[in-house]
Structures
1.
Amino acid sequence: MLFIWPEISMFYRHAISVRTGSFLPHKLFFLPVMHNYYKLYWFIACLTVAMALFFKKNRWLYIAVFIFSVNYVFIANKATNSGDGLLNFLIFMLIFVREGATKYSVTQMVNNAILILVQVYFCLFYFLNALGKIVQPLWRNGNYFTHTWHLSYYANPSFIPYWFFNPTMQLITAWSVMIFEFTFPVLIWFKSYRKPLLVIGLFFHFGIALLLSLPDFGLTMAIVYILFYDFKQKNANNLRESII
C-alpha cells in the first residue's frame, strides 16, 4: 500500500471518472467536498494494516483490513490482477484464524477447515486459469507471449531473454504453463510430488514477478505455497535425527 502511494491520485481520478464501486468507503470520495482528502483515506488504510500486524488477535482490525483491501480493488479497477482476488480471499479467511489453538478444540477445527478451504480454493484457482487458457487459440499456439512481451506497461524488457521471442520457445512456454496449472491441483495432494511441484511453482511465479513486473502476484502465490508444505513432517525428521 505504501509502494503505490505515488499512483494514488491516478487511481482516484480513474475511480471518479468511471464511478466504480458499491457500498464500500471510497464511494464517499466521489463527493466533490472530499476530493482533496483521498490521501487521508489511504493513510488510514495503511495505519490500519500496520496496527493489524502488531496488535494480533483483534478480529475487528482484520475485518477492517479486508474492507480496505476489497476497496482498493474497486478503486484500482482494471489495474489489478488475479492475485488481488486471491489475496482478498486469504485476508478474509484470516479473520477466522486463531493462534494458540489447543489440540482437539473448536478453534483448531476451524483453523484446519480454513486451511483446507484455502488449499482447495488455490487448486481451483490454478485449474480454472488453465481451463481458461487452453480454450484460447493464442495460448494453444503460443502467440499469447508474442503480444505480452511487447506490452511496455506490463512486460519487463530489461529481464526478458531474446530467445523468449522465438515462436518455438513461446509454444513450449505456453504449454508448460498450462500443463503445470492442470497437474498441480491433482498431484499436490500426493507427498511424493509435493516438494517438486512447490519448487517448480516458486520458480514459475518468480519468473512471472520478474518478467511481467508482477511482484505482488508472485509474493501472494509464494505465501500460499507455504500452506502446502508439511512442516510437521520436517520437525519429526529433525527430532528423529537428533535422537539418533
Note: The chain has a mean pLDDT of 80.
2.
Amino acid sequence: MTDQFNQSDIDAVYRAIAARRDVRHFVPGAIDEALFARLINAAHQAPSVGLMQPWRFIRIRSAAVRQAIVNLVDEERLATAEALGERGSEFMRLKVEGIRECGELLVAALMDRREDYVFGRRTLPEMDLASVACALQNMWLASRAEGLGMGWVSLFDPARLAALLSIPQGGKPVAVVCIGHVEQFYPIPMLEMEGWEKRRKLENLVFVDGWEHKAQAS
C-alpha cells in the first residue's frame, strides 16, 4: 500500500493523543492566521453522522463580546458550585476557563434544522453532538501538535449564549473554545493534578459480550 504511515508518523499520532490536555492557563498573544486556518481545517475534516457536518464555529473578535461570555461563565460557575454542595468550595478554587487570556476564542455550535438529517440519527439523534465532539477533538490534537493549548469550556447557559451570538432557533452552542500559547503543558490532566478526579483503570471499563454487572473498582 502506498498510503501507509511510517513508524515515526504513527508514533507522532499516539504522542499527540497522550499529550493532549484541556488547558486553562494561557500566555497572551495572537495566533498566526495561517496556523489558525490549519486548526479549523483539521476540525472540518472530522467524521460526522450521515456527513451532515453539524458544526458551526463563531470566532469572537470583539472585546465586549468576549467579556459578555466571561460574565456568563462566571454566573454558571457560581451556580455549579451551589449544585455541587459539599464540593462547592473546592470547585471554586479551580481555574475552570482561560477566556480572558487565550489568543483565539471560538464558540462551537450545533447547526439549526438538524431535523432535516435522518441518516444515522433516527434512533440516536444525539449523534450530531458526537460529530461536533469529533471536530473539536481534531482541533485539540492539531493544536497540541502545533504547540498550542486548547480548552473546552461548558459552563454557560446555552440559551443566553445563543441569544448573545444571534444563533438561529434550532441551533445550540455546545462549547466555548479557548486556544492560545502556553508556558508549559500539564504533565497530567489538570483536574487530576488538583485532586478533583483520577483516571480510571481501562480494564474496568472494557467488557466482553455484554455489560459486566459488578462493582467497578477505580
Note: The first strand starts at residue 55 and ends at 59.
